[in-house]
Amino acid sequence: MSATRPAPIKLSELLRRDVAADPMITGVTADSRKVAPGALFVALPGSAADGRAFIPQALSQGAAAVLAPADTDARLAPLLITSGDVRRAYAIAARGFYGAQPATCVAVTGTNGKTSVAAFCRQIWAALGLHAASMGTLGVLAQNGNVNQELTGPGLTSPDAADAARMLADLAESGVTHLALEASSHGIDQRRLDGVTLQAAAFTNLSQDHLDYHGDMGAYRAAKLRLFETLLPRGRTAVLNADSDAYSSFAAASIMSGLGVMAVGERGRDLSLIGRRAVPEGQRLTIDVRGSLHEVLLPLAGAFQASNALVAAGLCIAAGETPERVLAGLETITGARGRLQRIPGSGRGEVYVDYAHTPDGLETVLKALRPHATGRLIVVFGAGGDRDRAKRPMMGEIAGRLADVAIVTDDNPRSEDPAAIRKAVRAACPAAREIGDRRAAIREAIEMMGDGDVVIIAGKGHEQGQIVGGITHPFDDATEAAEALRLHA
Ligand SMILES: CC(=O)N[C@H]1[C@@H](OP(=O)(O)OP(=O)(O)OC[C@H]2O[C@@H](n3ccc(=O)[nH]c3=O)[C@H](O)[C@@H]2O)O[C@H](CO)[C@@H](O)[C@@H]1O[C@H](C)C(=O)N[C@@H](C)C(=O)N[C@H](CCC(=O)O)C(=O)O
Ligand SMILES: Nc1ncnc2c1ncn2[C@@H]1O[C@H](COP(=O)(O)OP(=O)(O)OP(=O)(O)O)[C@@H](O)[C@H]1O
Ligand SMILES: N[C@H](CCC[C@H](N)C(=O)O)C(=O)O
Ligand SMILES: [Mg+2]
């Protein structure tokens, strides 16, 4: 991606407050290793380290000023500015420094479906002739007509605030006018997107994930609600999936925050899904847009993709496009990489790679594929290390109940003992097979696949590595599945 080099700006202008001295600031970063002369270093207390420990390093590398939490010792830096919400101050300063952003930015939050919704928005806008982009788990993808460009590769779902501000400025400079961002609960909680001006925001669903970070579902929901309560300016539109159990709390919070609510889904009153029929090319949707009926051929399978499609359509409408044009755009979309991705190459059954890594995601994808299996439904899955442990038996129970054959394998054990993770998963599906080596597990599933069987390889989707200890070993489910299909042709 082209590196935007904004002009230096006075510290007082950047922070919009009086300061003891007013140097010209040449960069904004929360990482001491990236400090260049003239930078504003933002010292953030984090989960693994306290950024204040790196103030001496930042100063020695030429930091012109330091922004830090309110309780920071003033003697730590010659020019120290404090803030009661230093992460928010960081995001706003980064935005101020980099300046530009695409004119229309929308954000989507929810446990599952963010990547899909962001990808759908980008494609709908591109189908309407707009220069569009998406930013999230798959990186930054830009689309202008039929030209697709991967500007950055997969990384955090919501990037660090300074990275996000720089990428938004780069996108604006390259002519992108419409951007859909994924807002992860970590990202919202850590204020990574507080500098982005949003035209609309959406919510897909809320189910269990990330309790290792948030502690309980109330705190997890509160993080997601912050997108509507704090980040989306009053008067704008919250696009909410009315089929989610959490809909009413998101609708109430949005109304209390002075937002308009666009309710979408089978129970949605604004974009209402009144009919859905599977066809070989995907599914035919009948959508009621405030009294006018529209037929849409969505070229994707699965009820959850219809739900994501409605949320994406709602966002594009809330951001200014007409329903007719947006619904026509839906007919052109393709699925996001690694989300219910069909791997070609078998005359016997069907093989899919999918990113289901939560209980609800796994249940949803198994239910979506069941109608495709005239034979058995075979699932290969695991659970991530250093992540929410309560998910493990829940995912095991779901696989045991909804699949005919479940194979428990490894999915990024990280610092944990892989066998212990598999044991926790299998506690709820004792009949499952256990094959720790993911390649062997995939080969076993494909070897046993017979006519009419469907194999689903869940959990890693687009990921290109298996993280064991601190090492990422190259690994790609789609490549492995294709190779296994070749071996067992
Ligand atoms: C728990 C978590 O979210 N951590 C993220 C967070 O780290 P942190 O603030 O806790 O940072 P830390 O490592 O404790 O360090 C504190 C501060 O010291 C600074 N530092 C550190 C070392 C040094 O030498 N110099 C220095 O200045 C760091 O830059 C940081 O500002 O901020 C960092 C910078 O933005 C992130 O890289 C880091 O992501 C870690 C690697 C991570 O794995 N995050 C995952 C859990 C995550 O955020 N996932 C979400 C959700 C995915 C989903 O949707 O399911 C995502 O948005 O991707
Ligand atoms: N609306 C939905 N409801 C339930 N499950 C879904 C939905 N959309 C997608 N999924 C499942 O969740 C998986 C992840 O989908 P997607 O990547 O779009 O979600 P995400 O919210 O971006 O995830 P992450 O938090 O990891 O970024 C999919 O592969 C699918 O199995
Ligand atoms: N954004 C999610 C992705 C999980 C993907 C799965 N493969 C795993 O490693 O658990 C997380 O970081 O929790
Ligand atoms: Mg995502």
UniProtKB/TrEMBL annotation:
UniProt keyword terms in alphabetical order: ATP-binding, Cell cycle, Cell division, Cell shape, Cell wall biogenesis/degradation, Cytoplasm, Ligase, Magnesium, Nucleotide-binding, Peptidoglycan synthesis
Q: Domain Mur ligase N-terminal catalytic, which positions? A: 25-73
Co-factor(s): Mg(2+)
Identify the metabolic or biological route this protein is part of: Cell wall biogenesis; peptidoglycan biosynthesis
Q: Name all Mur ligase central domain ranges.
A: 108-315
Question: What subcellular compartments does it reside in?
Answer: Cytoplasm
Q: Which reaction does it catalyse?
A: UDP-N-acetyl-alpha-D-muramoyl-L-alanyl-D-glutamate + meso-2,6-diaminopimelate + ATP = UDP-N-acetyl-alpha-D-muramoyl-L-alanyl-gamma-D-glutamyl-meso-2,6-diaminopimelate + ADP + phosphate + H(+)
Q: How is it modified after translation?
A: Carboxylation is probably crucial for Mg(2+) binding and, consequently, for the gamma-phosphate positioning of ATP.
Which InterPro entries does the UniProt record give? Mur-like_cat_sf, Mur_ligase_C, Mur_ligase_C_dom_sf, Mur_ligase_cen, Mur_ligase_N, MurE/MurF_N, UDP-N-AcMur-Glu-dNH2Pim_ligase
Q: What is its EC number?
A: 6.3.2.13
Q: Place the motif Meso-diaminopimelate recognition motif on the sequence.
A: 411-414
Which superkingdom does the taxonomy of this entry point to?
A: Bacteria
Q: What is its main location?
A: cytoplasm
According to its UniProt record, this protein's enzyme class is ligase
Listed binding positions for ATP are G110, T111, N112, G113, K114, T115, S116
GO molecular function per UniProt: ligase activity
Span of domain Mur ligase C-terminal: 338-461
Question: What is the recorded function of this protein according to its Swiss-Prot or TrEMBL entry?
Answer: Catalyzes the addition of meso-diaminopimelic acid to the nucleotide precursor UDP-N-acetylmuramoyl-L-alanyl-D-glutamate (UMAG) in the biosynthesis of bacterial cell-wall peptidoglycan.
Q: What is this protein called?
A: UDP-N-acetylmuramoyl-L-alanyl-D-glutamate--2,6-diaminopimelate ligase
